Amino acid sequence: MSQSTSPSLAAIETAAPPAAVDSAGHRANPTSPAGERIFQHLIIGNVFLISVLVGFLVCCIIGWVESHQTPFKRFLRFHHWINPQTQFYPTVSQMIETAKLDAQPDQVLVIIGSDSILFGSGQPVRQIWTNHLQELLGPKYKVVVMAYPGAAFADSGAVVAEALLKQNEKVLLVSHLFIGHLNPLDKAAHPHVFWEARARHLLLDDPDREAEVQKAIASFSEPAKKDDAAHKPNADPEQEAKKALAAAAERGRRREMPLGFGLDAALRFNDLWTAVGYRNFFTVWEPLSKDKFYWARKDFPDPERPTPLEARNPPRLYDEHMNLIRQWSMALTRRGADGRWEEDSASRSWTDFEHLSRVAMPAEVRKRTLAVVTYESPFYRRDLTPDETQQQQLGLQGTVRRMNEAGYDCLTVGADFSIEDYFDVIHFAPSGGAKMADTLAPELKKLAKQLGYVSE
Amino acid sequence: MIFLTYWFYVFAAIALPAYWLVRHRTARLILLLVTCVVFHAHFAGPAGVIPIVVLAVLTYLIGLTRQRRLCVLGIAVSVGALLFYKYAMFLCLNVIGSVSPTAGQSALAFAERGMPAAPPLAISFFAFEFIHYLYDIRRGSPTLKNPLHFANFAIFWPSIVAGPIKRYEQFVPAMLDGAGATSIDYDSIAYGLFRVTIGFIKKTAADGLTAYLAYCLPAPVNAPDMSYAARFAGFSLPERWMMLGMLSLRILWDFSGYSDMAIGFARMMSIRIPENFNWPYLADSLADFWHRWHISLSTWIRDYVYIPLGGSRHGLMRKASNGLIAFALVGLWHGAAWNFIAWGVYHGVGLAIVSTYRAALGPVGRTLHRWLSVNRLITWAVTLTYVTFGWLLFFYPVQDAWRMFMLLFAGHR
Questions:
Q1: Cβ contacts of B246 within 8 Å, gap of 6 or more
Q2: Last residue of one domain, picked from the residues B157, B183, B209
Q3: Which of B7, B149, B186 lies closest to A13 in CB terms?
Q4: Quick check: A31 contacting B, CB < 8 Å?
Q5: pTM for the full model?
Q6: Domain span at B368
Q7: Which residue of B has its CA nearest to A285?
């Protein structure tokens, strides 16, 4: 053994050299980078730290103020430039304040929730379907669009409606879902509204949903699993490794959500930056705004434009859309013993749907919700085979029945709409939107009367 | 990015004040170790922690023995761990696979049996620091006998994520100096916070550039019909040059932003760790660039690869080949792919030219050298141009990088 004693050992472990202290008492080291020397000669450490602390507290206070008012002026909807499609995430508190803005005390707030279909994709500002709905409902109601593309049935507007209900407002919710499909909590595309509201204690107590939340949190924390795709004969291991890394990063982001929104509930940094991004300047580059990414979002107009009929259903997308329509019903039906199509009630799709319909929102919100299932454009439906049409009908009927059993008021829209009423495969053109409003208005009035919001 | 997670904010908000609330040096070092363990365990998970703990314990115990053969064995184990966790797939598919694809696939399948879903966090940094420790001890440097000191050196949380690669003979005195402060060092905390802020701003800007470049030149996995070069060709000439400039800024801000944050967090505990970047784009020669860029890596490679290989001691050819090997390893350190090796070799070739032209070209070389030494603006521009072209190799597959380079001088869209 070549054990040797080293004279410098003691120097390393016991007698550390003291840092240089200059005449002003600063610990500026002559070997420090120039930036450090300048910093330490210009700045007094404790004054700097106190200034940072005070600045931080001021930001928190501004954030709190911003969470109790809406930054959105002349609000109509969370259009392209003020929704998550362009990295803009209005906070739930700002959404709630926006919904309440200019509302009269006795008005029934009709919150339009969910996705691009109720948002009115394809409907320019002056022709948005909710304008017609407001006309049909009259002054006792105030229609507020809280929908935005990509939001789920129980997200966005549904969360706002629940929070307003907790504040004892008269609330009705209109939300859209796809045939036989509801998103679990851990799979939502833009989950921030729900998690933000939960962290800020804006939601009603619902033990069933909370159990789902805990399951989702546990799933976020699951360790990475070995992806066996790398062993498949045609899989590229390097690409699979990159995909696994991306999946791990996404899991990491989801795992951070409860803690992040918990911190935000206390410090309100999201409200501050959303308000700054809307009023002053935006700090995140994203591809759609390109070289104008730093513009205040208030300076971007609602970009929805009318689309000529001939451009609405491009042939290159025909197969993709047809496959989509077929897939929606396929997992929900089976061929019975007599050779006819029937609901596959025992299928995983239906059992999941039944479960999710009950835990998506509390019973008090469900009974105030008009759930809307829409037909696709006849441009595509006319090409379905009789078998496929029958499958679709069974899927729609099963969806409506199960939603009604879960306590929602559910109906379908679009069965008798024409090709001209559609902007594309699923979204309504202004004429289709107006027809949807015609269908929903009486249902909403009936629901309001049932709930005792209005007398007639 | 670990330093930009909410968990880390909470961790730092607890760990840093707690560090200063404890006044006794040993207690402070114990607390520092606890925070390092919590940090590492959280971000690496059990599958990532266990190999590092095993390597660290082995390195520490071998260090205590001071036996030269055991040190070599320890170094071999660290190198083996690095090869296994970081380079197994590359070696199986691109090295063995280039000879026999079937053998490559079989080797990969065999390796994957013992491999976790993701490699242990920062395995390269750990391996390099352990190799440095054992190598220096083998050459007679002192051993860290105190396990607390060694453990803090091994998993010091600010430098786990992206370095700098520490040297224990610098780090341990700095750590003991910082931990020995009897009163709260407000100046260090303020400067550390300032550096963290600078790093944060750089990282935010780099992320914006990353998003922009990923949008302009998406990875073929998302757009398999279009290679990087084919996409690049779709831009105008000024746009291509602008994107090249963005690549250069992106890598600088991203990498030096991490280092700024690491240095800043360490300084918030009054611990100095070495600078890693020093205005590298102001370098007026390639050698100067490598004194300014990722300093802890380039000096590590110099001390533990280049000099042991013979350095510049055995003639021009040997010097050049040693440089090429060293820089190929610098490239490979950044990732397991051919383009990283090509990037390293590109710099190795550049340095070989820079360091040999004066002798190789005789009187012409000496005249050129004299002229260049008084025209520093030109040498700066040449260096910056050379380094900037190199980033194409760093970011893109070799064939794409070459075509993109040619497209920088082609007028057509």
A1: B209, B212, B213
A2: B183
A3: B149
A4: no
A5: 0.84
A6: 283-413
A7: B208
